[in-house]
Amino acid sequence: MSLPDALANCLVLNTVAAARTLLRRGDAAFKPFGVTVQQFSLLAAIRFNPETPVAVLARRILLDRTSLTRNLDLLEQKNLVERVAGTDTSARLCRLTQDGSVLLDQLLDVWQRAQADIRDGFDETEADTYLRLVKHFARGK
Fold first, then answer.
1. Do residues 60 and 47 make contact, with C-beta atoms less than 8 angstroms apart?
2. CA distances (Å), origin 97, targets 92, 136, 140
3. What contacts 46, CB < 8 A, 6 or more positions away?
4. Alpha-carbon span 125 to 70, nearest angstrom
5. Which of 43, 98, 122, 132 could be a cystine partner for 126, CB 3.0 to 4.6 Å?
């Protein structure tokens, strides 16, 4: 295989291109609501993992500390989340505000439609295979 063919078939380069495309599509779907894919992911993680320290949430959604702090600050400024002290004084927790909860309900509907749109053209086996592979790589294996 020639070098140009090898580059065209590179798993890393194709994954980066696919991730950028999917991220752009997701951000475009959420733009009318004033949030990004990362912020949506963080809002959902807070709702579905109550009383979970912020650092644990970051690991669950694969968000580095800098991105986590920046996104939490933005969500807090928009009155969508509030930071609260946990029972362990060193653990920081977040919870959705009423506005954040209402917005997340709307975003979940948008997300479901976006997922259906992205999966359009894939049969169930292809979608399952893709998901299994990206989860494998996301685990760092």
1. no
2. 16, 34, 34
3. 52, 57, 81, 94, 95, 96, 100
4. 37
5. 122
Q: Give the confidence band of 141 by pLDDT, cuts at 50, 70, 90.
A: low
Whose CA is closest to 92, among 47, 135, 55, 49? 55
Burial of 100 (0-12, 13-18, 19+ CB in 10 A): buried
The type of residue at 78 is K
CA distance 97 to 31: 20
CA distance 62 to 64: 7
The per-residue pLDDT for range 42-91, each reduced to its tens digit, is: 999 999 998 888 888 888 888 888 898 899 999 999 999 998 877 766 67
